[in-house]
Amino acid sequence: MLGVYTGSGGSLLELPPAHLPAADVLGELSVPAGLTVCARVGGHAGLGRAALLGQTRDLLTRTGREAIDLLVLDGFDPVTPLEETASALDTLLTRGDVVHVAVAGANAWQLACAAGAGLPVTAVLTEWSLLARGSEDLVEAAEYLGIGVIAGAALGHGVLTGKYASRTPADSRAANDAGRGTSALEDYLGPVARSVVNGVVKAATGLGVTPLDVALAWNRSLPVASSLVAPRTSTQLEEILRSALVLEPEIREALDQISEPLRLAMR
After folding, report:
1. Theoretical Cys-Cys bridge with 105: which of 18, 75, 211, 228, CB 3.0 to 4.6 Å?
2. What is the pLDDT of residues 35-66, one digit of tens each?
3. 267 exposure class (CB count in 10 Å sphere: 0-12, 13-18, 19+)
């Protein structure tokens, strides 16, 4: 999958939180020099100096890389002084362990605080799709601060492909989560979300394309540096890479209106 992705011009690869095995898998692969790797640190460990330095060194060891291209601070740490976090990042940048810094899981005022405290943030990661419209205030703050935006979960964790329209596929993420007594997709499967998906499916049918094409086309029109997707199979990846639909303004406007309740509910 990595070979197909980079061979098609893919240039950004996001690793999940540091405690998961993706970093070890990446370390076993031959990674093209032009691939930008972004990796998350922080999370439950917080954004203190010891946590940031230790997790970054662990990532470098496990991935076999000389530097993390984009280090993502995962979540806002209300306990650690921002000055301590800024000092740790300065150390990592000075040593060359990290090239750029991003934040994820922050809202607009937290991003403003981070920038005001001198954190060298160049990008913000936030879920943004037709099923996740609550980040638009954050995007406005990022634009004002001169910070780039990366849209996460561009396909709404797979829901925008329409595969959950009538049932939950046995091999899907939702089915696996439900088997553990939880569902990470609960917010994406409610009545309002279903109406959005129905609108995407209707638009796709009228255009003679797939719901995936419509959802990705909507995201490609956003003011973002990149939109992240998470294919689980080569077939899914190839379908994503083939997608090149451009929406007419009136269709995009109709999709905006259909998903407007989700934007208002998440503010």
Report:
1. 75
2. 999 999 999 899 999 999 999 999 999 999 99
3. exposed
Residue 56: give its domain's CATH number. Answer: 3.20.20.100
Taking only the tens place, the pLDDT of each residue in 121-158 is 999 999 999 999 888 889 999 999 999 999 999 999 99
Q: What percent of the chain has pLDDT over 90?
A: 79
Task: Name which of 98-107, 167-176, 187-196 the model is least confident about.
Answer: 167-176
| Residue 228, domain member (yes or no) | no
| Structural domain contains residue 61 | yes
Does residue 180 form part of some domain? Answer: no
* Rounded Cα distance, 99 and 122, in Å: 10
What range does the domain containing 87 cover?
A: 1-127
Domain count, the chain: 1
The pLDDT value given to residue 20: 85
Predicted confidence at residue 223, as pLDDT, reads: 92
